[in-house]
Structures are given as C-alpha cells and as structure tokens.
Amino acid sequence: MQTTLAEKYKHQTYTTDAEHILGRCVHCGFCNATCPTFQITGDELEGPRGRIYVIKGILEGASPTLTTRNHLDRCLACQSCETTCPSGVQYSRLLDIGRQVHNEAMDGPLVDKWTRILLRKILLRPQLFKLLLLPANTFGFLIPKSLKKHIPPLGKVPAVKSTLNKQADNQRTLIMLRGCAQQVCVPEINYAATELFNQLGFNVIESVEDRCCGALSHHNDATEEARGLARKNIDTWWPLIEQGAESIVVTASGCATMVREYDYLLKNDAEYSDKAKRIAELCRDPLEILENFSGHLKARPGTPDRISYQAPCTQQHGLGIRGRVEQLLQSAGFELTQQKIGHICCGSAGSYSTLQPKLSGQLQKNKLEDLTRENPELIATANIGCLLHLQSGTEIPVKHWLQIIDVDNTGL
Predict the structure, then answer these.
(1) Helix, strand, coil percent content, the chain, rounded in steps of 5
(2) Whether 309 contacts 381, CB under 8 Å
(3) What percent of the chain has pLDDT over 90?
(4) What is the SS3 assignment for 267?
C-alpha cells in the first residue's frame, strides 16, 4: 500500500515505522475474518483493514475527527489480525501510531479522557486500589448483584506464605514481576507460581521495587508514562540480571507481551535501548519454562479434571505460544473441552471492558457460551484481566492455570 505522508508527519519519530507497516498491507481483508469487532458489527471501519485506511488517510492529511477516533478506540488490540495476516503487517504498532496522532491533534470526549486518567491513577497504585476495594468487598452484601459483579475481588495472601525472595542454594534464579491489579485481586497466582518454581529447583525473586509493566499507560494515551515505568523496571531488574538471574517470569500474559515490547518502546532512548532489548529477550511466560518439566507436573489435589482453557489473545498472538498451555495441561492429566471461537477475544483487553462496555459485554457473553458449552467444572486462563472479566459473567470458578497444577516430585 503506497502512502504519501503529509508534510507535518514526514519528520515525526514514528514516520519510518508507519510507512513500513502501511507498505506491507495488500488490503486483502483476511484480517476481518478474525477481527472480533468486525464480526459483531459487520462495519468495514470496525475491522483492521478499515482502520488501516483511516490511519493512512490521516497521515496523508485528512483531519482527525471524533468518528475516526471512535473507530480506533473500539479496536481491542488483540492482534488476532496479525496472526491471520499473510503479509506480516504489524497492525498493533500502526494502531498505536494512529492513536498518538489523534491525541496530538484533538482531545477525546471529556468523560473518556478522565476515565482513562482515573484508571491509571488508581491501578498504578496498588495500595490505593486495595484501599478502594476494601469497603466494596467488605459490604458487598449491600450492593445490587448487577453492580457487584463488576467490582473486582480483594485477594487474600495465602496463610502459609511461599518462599518469595528466598535466598536458597538453588543454582537457577528467576525474577518475577509483581504486577499491579494482580497483586491486589489475585495475589495467589504469583504464590502458586513461586511454589512450582521452587520445587523445580529455581530461586524466585519478586522485587517490591518494580512497577506496572506499562501496558495500561501505553494503551490509554500516556506512552511517555509507559516509557518511564519501563525504565524503572529496567533499573530494578538490571542488577539482578548482572548477578545471574536467567529470566524475567511474568505470570500475566498481557504484561509479558508489554515487557517483550520494551525494546521497541525504548528504541530511541540512547541510555536504555540496549538494556531494553536484553530485558525483552529475557522475558518469559511461565509456560516457556514449565513445559521443560511437563513430565513432572500433575493436577493440584482437589482440582476438577474437566476444564475449559481460555487462551488470552496476548498469549496466542502477542507471545506466539498458541496451543502450548493446553498441551501441558493435558499432559498433567486434565480433560479439556472443545471450543469453536477460541481465537476470538473475551472482551477484557485491559481497560477496554470499562471504556467500551457494550462491545466488551457481547464478547464476554459469546466467549462464556463457548467455554461452557460442554459443561466444564472450571475455567482456566493466563491473564488477570481475562480472569476477572470472565468471572464477572459466570458462576463457574475461573482460575489462572498456575493455580491448578502441582509438581510430581517422583524422579526429580
């Protein structure tokens, strides 16, 4: 796709990237076949190909409008289209550029703007988030059921703590990102992961100094804030890497996808670009380590055998490990139900469920109907956003897959 940039965009930092990405698109439309919003609306401008034309038009001089901004905002950034695209178009990066151009040219609706700011101010401060959730969870019995289901739970630290930050004799050391919402709502996930890795011979360091991965800021009009968070995490992790930590394990697939983007996010930062590239290379989804021990994993006692696994978009498309968690769970003894739309987003997509409740709600409904069609006793997933979003729409327990597996020490 040939693009003639308007003069005011020719010398921006994103110019080369935009032209390269647009140049790879052959407007075939394969992307629309797997786009969640296009499948619901049938609107060409609510699919990747239409949004690419919108961004191309603006970069060529068309004026951004509230309508074009809405088309871009209604994208989930699930990256399903990138997996489908035969030309390798990096659509999600082009989407970020399009949103940045819009932000520079015009403000969005005031309510939308302040909602994004409040989400960042609250979720990036775990103690504040916990403080706000405490009364809502304590007096939940007073809240109408229709409203209560949208209030995240306040997680409980296990009574018997795992060996976080254990200075053991284990030869291999992993760094584990704490996360922001996850450490408040479901801290049990990282505790379960740490127990698994400890039993397999890894020492796990969970630094209290790390920050949000930056995804929430990056996707909500605050990319500079995201870069600042990335730099703080790099400063926190770098001494540990120099001391021999071999990987950075991120238990939320959405956060892992973001950390893997640090090299791109900071590529123009002379001080941090090399370190960011190394951090991105060391970032691991737990699956990428645990599958090396698949013969030593089993179902956690008391866990149902028949489950549905919801593979987050960030795991399938962002990390590119589609189908591998399912294989590990099956080898651990679980029976997995079949799905028809396993490649379609559940509608969580970070803050999307708050900013686009109508589309998000329809996607949640469709996903839960698919996940529960064969009557599983439990739904497993790999991302905190998906977990909370799905749990708000069903009575079936939803857990992170790390919470349902255990180590079979036989032969270790």
Answers:
(1) 55, 10, 40
(2) yes
(3) 71
(4) coil
Q: Buried b / exposed e across 36-50, counting CB within 10 Å, b at 16+?
A: bbbbbeeeebbbbbb
**CB 291 within 8 Å of CB 324:** yes
Q: Find out whether 290 and 296 touch, Cβ atoms under 8 Å.
A: no
Q: For 368-382, how does the pLDDT look when each residue is reduced to its tens digit (9 = 90+)?
A: 999 999 999 999 999
User: 339: phi > 0 → left, psi -120 to 50 → alpha, else beta; which?
Assistant: beta
Look at residues 204, 147, 149, 144 and name the one whose alpha carbon lies nearest to residue 178.
204
CB 405 within 8 A of CB 300: yes
* pLDDT value of residue 411: 61
pLDDT at 163: 47
Kindly tell me the sign of the dihedral angle through the C-alpha atoms of 183, 77, 348, 353.
positive
pLDDT of residue 162: 46
State phi, psi for 321 to the nearest 5 degrees.
-120, 40
Mean pLDDT, the chain, integer? 90
Whole-angstrom Cα distance, residue 198 to residue 183? 19
What is the C-alpha radius of gyration for the chain, rounded to an integer number of angstroms?
21
CB of 340 closer than 8 Å to CB of 370: yes
- For the stretch 36-56, pLDDT in tens is 999 999 999 999 999 999 999
Q: Is the pTM of this model over 0.85?
A: yes
Q: What is the mean pLDDT of residues 1-29?
A: 88
Q: Distances from the Cα of 94 to the Cαs of 100, 105, 256, 361, in angstroms?
A: 10, 17, 20, 26
DSSP line for 327-358: HHHHHTTPEEPP-S-TTS--S-TTTHHHHSHH
Cα(403)–Cα(372) distance, integer angstroms: 20
Question: Quick one: which of 285, 380, 400 has its CA closest to 336?
Answer: 380
Alpha-carbon torsion (143, 146, 149, 150), positive or negative: negative
